[in-house]
Amino acid sequence: MLVGVVDPSHTTRKSDKPGILPPWLTIDELWLTSQTDDTKWSPWTYEMIQAALGEWQERGDRISTTLLVAGCPRGAVLERKVDWVGRLDDMYASLRGTLLHTMLEQYARTGGIAEARFFTTVDGIEFSCSPDLLTEATVYDYKMTENPPTFGYPYRHHTEQLMVNGYVARHAERWEHTEDLPFDPREFPAHQAVVVYLGPKGPKPILVERNEEHVTPGGKVIKKKRPYMWSDSESVDFIRPRLRMMKQALSIFPRWPEGAEDLWGGEPGYDCPGPPLCYLPNCLAKRHPELYTWPQEGVSG
Q: Domain ranges in the chain?
């Protein structure tokens, strides 16, 4: 559970030294401290802090597509099961993405479904997804990034997220949305997936494709790229082991779920396995347990 945030003030940034833990504020303390018109206090204004923390969701033991494709499953579990101190700077990319999604949801096309949450079950375990946009043909995901792919296909974990979203939507057992859905995604399952990368120089939409054999009118067999969605069996093969492992991990924490190292890599335990398995810079698993939180100045731990 997020219990505090590193002091975002300019003073703290200037005095920061390697190896020295920065001071931090509880969420309530941050609300009070940030209500200032002093532009030299911090690059983070009160409104930005409210937006960043307001969008932070304590999800408990609920499982979503985002959790199943997490870059660090260990860190994803720890964020839900231990008290920890975060950094506003680490939330900046998410804040930018949220602002974008809010605007796109407002201007979604007629007949499209924006930001609905769909629920389904596999092996009796419920999980959910919230596609950025779903039409009768396509499931979309918008990604704010400084580094869009230079190649003609999405990053792998983005493709995996879209494939799982597509599966959940077409097998939805229930859904949550502010309005009635313009169509039933079970009756009109998306047959293609698109990631729209929003880079510094402009948008770059990429259709998920694969090479398939195609017979030309002259009878010649050639390979041609076609839109690609995982079949139900491919989806379940990907979802099932991750869903079971996440369910077990969340249920028995802090004990280690049996066999998780085979799926997540590294030695058993919640310590970061490090390179070459993981290069994530700000994952919670990289911290030693005593560094999830640390005492505030003048306050006992």
A: 2-91+234-291, 100-232
